[in-house]
Every structure is written in structure tokens, then in C-alpha cells.
Amino acid sequence: MGRKKGFYLIEVISEKFDRLSAEEQLKVIIHELMHIPKSFGGGFIHHDKVHDASVDHVYNHYCNLKKEETEWF
User: Model-level pTM greater than 0.85?
Assistant: First the structure.
């Protein structure tokens, strides 16, 4: 038998998530995505690697890329 592929599901609690600003919602999504290993092998990356500073780093990188994209036009 072949190896089964893993899949990931991100669930948010709408009562909390919906009250956040768009920026904070994006940071929550980034945070949750950062728990998924690059191999998509079914594992989980723990909070020693996924924390506010690492999420802020990725968020800032994303914002810079978006800014460059809009400045190109």
C-alpha cells in the first residue's frame, strides 16, 4: 500500500477571530500556517519555533512584498 498523504485544517473561533482587525486576522492565519512543516508530512511545528516574533517577521516580509508589488505598477 502507498503512503497516505496528510492534510491540514485551520479552524478559527469566529466569536474571537471576527472581532480582530484585518491585520490581526492575517497574523493569526500566518501563525497557524507556520505550524505546518514544509514537508506536509502530517507533523506539527511547536510554539518554540512559532511565536510572536517569528509571526511578525513573516507578516512584515509579506507586507513588504505586497508594497513592492503595488509600487511596480
Answer: no
